[in-house]
Amino acid sequence: MKFTQSLLPFFLALAPSALAASPTDLQAQIGSHVIYSYPGLEPSAQLLELIKEGKVGGIILFGENVSDNLTTTIDNLQQTYKQSPYYSGSPLLVMTDQEGGEVRRLSGGPVSSAKVVGEAADYKAAATQMGIDAATTLKEFHNNANLAPVLDVFRVAGDFADNYQRSFSNSSSVVGTCGSAFIHAQQGDGVVATVKHFPGLGGASTTENTDVEPVTIDFTKEELRSVDMAPYTKAIAAGVDMVMASWAIYPALDANYPSGLSKAIIQNELRGRLGFKGVTITDAIEAGSLVAFGDQGPRGLLAAQAGMDLLLASGRNVTQGEAIYDALAAALKDGSLDKRAFSNATNRIASLRKKLIKF
């Protein structure tokens, strides 16, 4: 969707909310919700142009993007944005998965996996060091956010969360303590933390991967609340900045939609019952678990309608982010995306970005 002066009356009608009164302002506000990705070592001219147009809220990095020149590349992205007329005064979000163990995109710590940390004699101290190490590495590469720690409480040895040693423990108490220690240490050193995958992927078997196919976790509401969501209570009390929702379906909470597309889970459980007031972020929009929910744009719109603030276009294809952006813009115009709720989400993102390190 291209913005033109013919749309000005629509944008003016949105005032005095955070959806400001001009097409250019709204363009940047919609853009702040979309996290892009790119293939290879250098961002394309197309992505740079989108940054200049204010249509990019941040970047997620993968191993294929990492080289000795990564900090220069990131600095150039930030400088491109800073020179844009849409510059908000705050940096773009630059994030990756620097969990520890096998899941590390950047060379450096934390070296130990969550499982090793959770089994330590003093697991709180070990998790604190994990958060310190993560922040050190992320700042070295000019990243300002981390999609970690994982708060999944595994159930069976060798299941999905345990098999890759991404879970601290099969004890909610240990997971909550480790997660909170990680958060305190990393955010205390200036790097945004993200807890995932709400309400929990601890029930997924070894072969159940939401990146690849639909996954259903058929625990009771009581078990989900007392076991899987319990670590989030500690994380929220610790002041975690972001929560990533899972793409699994939890029939006890919502029989039809995965967590990241579910108003019942995001609004009623995460924000309502647990009281989370920070920024929500989706898992990968291109995930195989979402095959029943249309193309990239419609998926992003469903997530936004459910209450997800940041939409993760991590398919290393710039047109994916554009499709999500266009879907949001069209939905705001036709009223299928609630303007007040979207305005509140925009404000949460803006508040988060004001906290980001400026390298």
Structural class by secondary-structure content: alpha/beta
Please tell me the overall pLDDT.
Answer: 94
Distance between the termini: 33 Å
Let me know the number of strands: 12
Strand order of the largest sheet: 6-3-2-1-12
Write out the CATH superfamily name: Glycoside hydrolase, family 3, N-terminal domain
Individual helix count: 14
Overall outline: globular
Overall CATH class? Alpha Beta
CATH architecture: Alpha-Beta Barrel
Q: CATH topology, what is it called?
A: TIM Barrel
Order of helical and strand elements: HHEHEHEEEHHEHHEHHEEEHEHEHH
Rg, nearest Å: 19 Å
Would you mind describing this structure in some detail?
The protein is α/β, with parallel strands linked by helices. Helices cover 42% and strands 11% of the residues. β4 and β5 form a beta hairpin. This is Glycoside hydrolase, superfamily.
Short characterization:
The chain has 359 residues and is α/β, with parallel strands linked by helices. The protein is built from 14 helices and twelve strands.
Give me the secondary-structure topology.
Blueprint lengths: L7 H6 L9 H9 L2 E3 L8 H8 L5 E3 L9 H13 L10 E4 L1 E3 L2 E2 L9 H5 L4 H18 L4 E2 L13 H4 L8 H17 L5 E5 L22 H8 L1 H8 L4 E4 L3 E2 L3 E5 L4 H11 L5 E3 L14 H11 L4 E2 L5 H17 L4 H16 L5
Helix pairs in contact: 6-8, 8-10, 12-13
